[in-house]
Design brief:
Oligomer: heterodimer
Distance between the termini of chain A: 43 Å
Helix content of chain B: 55-70%
Order of helices and strands of chain B: HHHEEHEEEHHHHHEHEEHHHEEH
Largest interface: A-B, 15 and 13 residues
Helix content of chain A: 40-55%
Number of strands of chain A: 13
Strand content of chain B: 5-15%
Shape of chain A: globular
Shape of chain B: rod-shaped
Number of helices of chain A: 12
Strand order of the largest sheet of chain B: 2-1-5-4-3
Radius of gyration of chain B: 53 Å
Structural class of chain A: alpha/beta
Structural class of chain B: alpha+beta
Strand order of the largest sheet of chain A: 2-1-3-12-4-13
Chain lengths: 296, 487
């Protein structure tokens, strides 16, 4: 990339001029998120939760910068899809994504590390409803306005979608209406405010937020917990497999619980640490994708 | 009309302050109304502006989400906007989509998403940006969401307007209290000022009232205002009037006294004559007694002659005393008074060789409470006038009829008839002009007596020419009652 424009070129013929223009256009189009050594290490964050917690972002950035040895830019977007697309396109060096996009782009992504929560790299998806609603069975949520987190979220969409598919149902038939809030916290807010009667939410987010914002979360209750599934992992494009920075990132993450600054980040995230995991951890999610695909 | 009269009956010193107070109340009412009107307009345009910017912000925030039909984004924008527009106190916002159905509301439990907007929402807006519902203390505002000329939805909002109305009430209360206090102060000030202004008029009024009751006193110098001006000149004018009236009264009294003395002079000369007549006989009798006193027959005759002569003198003297001794004039009129008059007239009649037709009907046992002195003087004056008007050797008459209700006294003469001025002085309603002509002070005293008794005087032409003056004097009620008790 750096050698594309020879500084010694004396004559610009028509072809090279065109090529220059074309590459300039490509460069312009891709420049905002284009991963390059000069621009530092780009680390994508899905709005899993607390994406607006500036203290967390600052500490994480400082930690990663020190561990990787070059400036780290934290990139966040509104939807999972945007982050996933940037990651797959190679515009991010790594990203903390959801298990569902990982399964979808398994062939193009490598697992870097997976967070460990309560000692395991696992979490659940919750179906939640208003706290004063006496519902114990998920079947009773039929006819609700339902809040999903994100169409590319495992816990915030896929799990519920698969549950319905396994029972021969589709969201649009089972629920009166559905909408996406693009954030697990927003799902909790939607259900708490009554905008939605029920929602699909990340169990880790719900549990952590119950500590941090009890007034909001106690307005909701869990109707159904899913089985334990692979925790949203940190992944990197396969194309960067040989990049030493990815290796340094992996070390930084897996050693986080052993470093002072890392422990502060983990404390804010309420996580034990990061562990290296096998892709098989996400097979159960892949099975859900299959189930949904089979049902149509 | 009666209210108006009642209002006019209130003294000026109260009426003017009341009017000032009423004026103040009216002015304060108008001012309050204007202030409140202005305030409410200012408030409304302020709220309109605030609501306009609120709606602008909300529109910018929700429009992209409305275009996408993104329920959560709309809700999130509404939820955040509720917290960031504290000055407006928004209580509710509802966003509808192109199909008119609710996309999201700040309170989804009340207005759920995807439901139809309640009809009440469509009908609650007026012409202005913000429409107020005073009963609910709420303001409403509405904005269409337009994108590329197409209506893609609408925002319905409600604000808590209670603080606006509370501010208005507070200002109204402040205005009422301030204006009330001002009105009270102005009323009191007006009251005191007017009282101070009309105090001299009250002094004048009091003096005039006293004057009407007979005691005209000049206004003392300490009642004069410290500074001169109109009031002082008014007071001076009044005092000059009082002094002139007093001088006139003094003059009249003096004239009356002189008239009395004049008639006394006439009578005195008559009396001297009357006394002188028997004196010759008395001296003769004394000479006879000196010479023939030892002769019993002569002595007795002479002594008897002297006794009769002295008796005649005593009668004349007593009558004169009765007439001119003031303490006796207050007694009620009696038949004796009339007899005194007869005695007093005798010398004059004799001098002019006139006869007196004396017809006095005074039933015994009838008391009269008419004051004796003035009546006797009046009768005497009339008889003297009659005598003067009648030629020598003529006849004058006195006729007195005393009934239970009135005393009627008629004096007749054989003169050429009374002058018109004299008649006017006796019988006109207003004897003033005749009095001012300076004629007949005696007649004026008669007239005064008649007026004092509440009676009247009539002057007629007698059957044989001449004049008949008739005085009719009513006898007061209590006197009649006393009489009946006495009987």
């Amino acid at each position: 990339m750096t050698a594309r424009y020879p500084a010694t070129s004396q004559v610009l013929d028509r072809r090279s001029a065109l090529a220059l223009c074309g590459s300039a256009v490509v460069s312009l189009a891709l420049s905002p998120g284009r991963a390059s050594a000069q621009e530092g290490f780009k680390f994508g964050l899905t709005p899993v939760f607390l994406s607006n917690d500036l203290e967390l972002l600052a500490r994480l950035r400082a930690y990663l910068t020190e561990a990787i040895g070059e400036p780290v830019e934290l990139v966040s977007r509104r939807t999972y899809q945007e982050i996933t697309a940037l990651l797959v396109a190679g515009q991010l060096h790594a990203a903390w994504i959801c298990g569902y996009p990982y399964v979808q782009f398994k062939s193009e992504l490598d697992l870097v590390a997976t967070p460990s929560w309560h000692g395991k790299p696992l979490y659940q998806s919750y179906l939640i409803a208003a706290a004063d609603r006496p519902t114990e069975r998920w079947e009773n949520l039929k006819g609700d306005i339902h809040a999903f987190s994100d169409p590319d979220s495992n816990s915030g969409f896929l799990v519920t979608r698969a549950l319905l598919a396994e029972n021969g149902l589709k969201p649009e038939g089972f629920f009166a209406r559905t909408f996406y809030t693009y954030g697990h916290r927003n799902v909790i807010r939607a259900v708490a405010s009554g905008l939605a009667q029920s929602g699909s939410v990340d169990g880790y987010v719900w549990d952590v937020m119950r500590e941090m914002e009890p007034d909001l979360v106690t307005q909701t209750r869990i109707v159904r917990r899913s089985e334990w599934l692979g925790f949203p992992p940190v992944a990197a494009p396969k194309a960067l497999a040989g990049d030493p920075r990815i290796a340094r990132l992996k070390d930084a993450l897996t050693e986080m619980d052993r470093r002072e600054e890392g422990r502060k980040v983990l404390a804010l995230l309420r996580l034990d640490g990061f562990v290296a995991t096998e892709p098989a951890l996400f097979d159960s999610i892949a099975a859900k994708v299959d189930a949904v695909r089979r049902f149509g | 009309m009666s209210t108006f009269r009642r209002l006019r009956a209130i003294p000026v010193s109260y009426r003017v302050p009341i009017l000032v107070a009423l004026l103040m109340v009216a002015i304060s009412g108008v001012i309050s109304e204007r202030v409140l009107d202005r305030l409410s307009r200012t408030q409304e345009s302020f709220i309109d502006g605030l609501a306009g910017s609120y709606l602008d912000g909300l529109t910018a925030a929700v429009l992209p989400a409305v275009l996408r039909g993104d329920v959560w984004e709309v809700f999130d924008a509404l939820d955040r906007s509720q917290k960031s527009y504290q000055a407006l106190s928004p209580v509710e916002a509802v966003v509808t989509g192109a199909d008119g159905k609710v996309l999201a509301a700040t309170d989804p439990t009340r207005i759920p998403s995807f439901s139809e907007l309640p009809d009440a929402y469509a009908s609650r807006y007026g012409a202005r940006t913000v429409t107020f519902d005073r009963e609910a203390d709420t303001g409403f505002a509405y904005r269409d969401l337009v994108y590329q000329g197409q209506k893609v939805g609408a925002i319905h909002t409600a604000f808590d307007a209670s603080h606006i109305f509370a501010e208005r009430r507070e200002i109204l209360a402040t205005l009422l209290v301030t204006n009330g206090v001002l009105a009270a102060i102005f009323s009191l000030g007006g009251f005191l000022l007017v009282r101070r202004m009309i105090a001299p008029m009250r002094v004048l009024e009091d003096h005039m009232r006293a004057a009407a009751n007979g005691v005209a006193e000049p206004i003392s110098s300490r009642e004069f205002p410290s500074r001169g001006g109109e009031v002082a000149s008014l007071f001076n004018g009044y005092n000059a009037l009082v002094h002139a009236e007093r001088e006139r009264a003094n003059l009249a009294m003096q004239l009356a006294e002189e008239e009395k003395l004049a008639s006394l002079g006439r009578l005195a000369s008559g009396m001297a004559h009357e006394i002188n007549n028997p004196l010759g006989g008395l001296f003769n009798a004394i000479d006879t007694l000196k010479t023939h006193g030892r002769t019993p027959g002569v002595r007795d005759t002479s002594i008897s002659l002297i006794e009769r002569g002295l008796n005649g003198i005593r009668e004349v003297v007593e009558a004169a005393l009765a007439t001119y001794r003031p303490e006796r004039s207050a007694r009620p009129l009696s038949a004796d008074d009339l007899e005194d008059v007869r005695v007093l007239m005798k010398p004059e009649l004799r001098r002019r060789r006139q006869r007196l037709d004396w017809q006095v009907d005074w039933p015994a046992g009838l008391a009269a409470t008419i004051p004796g002195g003035p009546v006797r003087q009046a009768v005497l004056n009339l008889l003297l006038n009659a005598s003067a008007a009648t030629p020598e050797a003529g006849e004058i008459g006195l006729k007195v009829e005393r009934t239970a209700h009135q005393l009627k006294i008629s004096v007749s003469d054989e003169g050429p008839g009374m002058p018109r001025d004299s008649i006017a002085m006796l019988s006109d309603d207003d004897p003033g002009p005749a009095v001012r002509a300076g004629r007949g002070l005696g007649l004026w005293m008669v007239r005064r007596m008649v007026d004092a008794c509440g009676g009247k005087a009539i002057v007629e032409t007698g059957p044989s020419g001449g004049s008949v003056v008739t005085l009719i004097l009513p006898i007061p009620e209590e006197a009649r009652n006393e009489r009946s008790h006495a009987a």
